[in-house]
């Protein structure tokens, strides 16, 4: 019997438990901010934060845009839904030397990331610059190059087994490893 499962690994933005709870919480706090007696400055700041943030998360989930894709041409790192075209980048296999699964501390929790190790001399990715590197260097536990070639696993689910199968199929010998802090 022939296996009909494609080796292409593609994940799209969508609804997950975390996104749902963030949107529900944002709606709740937005409604509370509209109650009488809430100071105007609090109302404006809170609605911008909770209303805007919740709306952006809902828009991202409903957009179903590609968040991450591994195929025969390389890897597509899907961008921010608000600026999808400007922040989405395709990295060809010739520029990739490895994958890194890592986590970023966000205070009380950690946020998983999938990143690429790229060859020396590979073209810069969007957002990469001296000022950004200075900030990133202090915030993340992975090299700056990996951080700029990473995407947060937020609004989509990473299937590590399917990722490993796709990488092995399209780029045998390129490792998928977990960063020690992951």
Automatic annotation (TrEMBL):
Q: Where are the transmembrane segments?
A: 20-38
Reading the lineage from the top rank, the first entry is Bacteria
Alphabetized, the UniProt keywords read: Membrane, Transmembrane, Transmembrane helix
| Identification of the protein by name | PH domain-containing protein
The record lists the organism as Streptomyces macrolidinus
What is the organism lineage in this UniProt record? Bacteria, Bacillati, Actinomycetota, Actinomycetes, Kitasatosporales
């Amino acid at each position: 019997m022939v296996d009909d499962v494609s080796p292409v690994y593609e994940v799209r933005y969508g609804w997950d438990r975390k996104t749902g709870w963030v949107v529900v919480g944002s709606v709740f706090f937005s409604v509370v901010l509209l109650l009488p007696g809430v100071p105007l400055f609090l109302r404006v700041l809170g609605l911008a934060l909770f209303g805007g943030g919740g709306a952006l998360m809902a828009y991202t989930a409903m957009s179903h845009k590609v968040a991450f894709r591994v195929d025969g041409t390389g890897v597509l790192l899907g961008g921010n839904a608000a600026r999808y075209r400007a922040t989405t980048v395709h990295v060809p296999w010739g520029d990739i030397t490895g994958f890194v699964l890592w986590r970023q501390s966000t205070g009380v929790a950690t946020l998983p990331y999938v990143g690429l190790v790229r060859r020396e001399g590979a073209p810069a990715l969007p957002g990469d610059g001296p000022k950004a590197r200075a900030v990133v260097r202090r915030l993340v536990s992975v090299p700056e190059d990996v951080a700029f070639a990473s995407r947060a696993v937020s609004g989509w689910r990473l299937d590590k087994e399917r990722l490993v199968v796709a990488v092995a199929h399209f780029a045998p010998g390129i490792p998928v490893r977990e960063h020690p802090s992951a």
